[in-house]
Design brief:
By secondary structure, this protein is α+β, with helices and mostly antiparallel strands. Helices cover 23% and strands 38% of the residues. A hairpin with a 5-residue loop joins strand 2 and strand 3.
Length: 137
């Protein structure tokens, strides 16, 4: 139903605690329409405790079709190729759609983590991130 089209491979930036990241377009196979985007952050740093290994968005006209969950499942193969045994997923406590995506994936809820005051998301008004683990094996 969907394919992931690699758009960019970004190298790590240790000074900013940025992991190597692959950026994909989520493309609907039937008609070639780009319905969103998803990225895979490869590895782990202290910052991924709050941001997770996966970031995604589905464009507004295409929401409600479980494309985010389907795209996350498609990330399993590239993640395993990098030796990752699990993906950590996070979402803001008030983001019901992302919470539902984690549930649809069967990801294990780990905790509700309070964001530290200096965190970028905290500065944007987010106070709590929900953390999940999706085992790949």
């Amino acid at each position: 139903e969907l394919t992931l089209v690699l758009q960019e491979n970004r190298q790590a930036n240790a000074a900013l605690q940025l992991l190597p990241t692959q950026y994909f377009v989520i493309r609907r196979s039937a008609d070639g329409v780009d319905v969103g985007r998803i990225d895979l952050r490869i590895g782990w740093t202290d910052s991924t405790y709050y941001s997770g290994n996966v970031g995604y968005t589905v464009h507004l006209p295409y929401r409600g079709h479980r494309y985010a969950a389907k795209a996350c499942r498609l990330l399993a193969a590239p993640a395993r190729a990098y030796g990752m045994r699990a993906l950590f997923l996070t979402c803001a406590e008030g983001n019901a759609a992302s919470r539902r995506t984690c549930e649809l994936l069967g990801a294990k809820f780990l905790e509700a983590a309070a964001l530290p005051p200096g965190n970028k998301l905290h500065l944007q008004g987010v106070r709590t991130m929900l953390r999940y683990r999706l085992d790949l094996f």
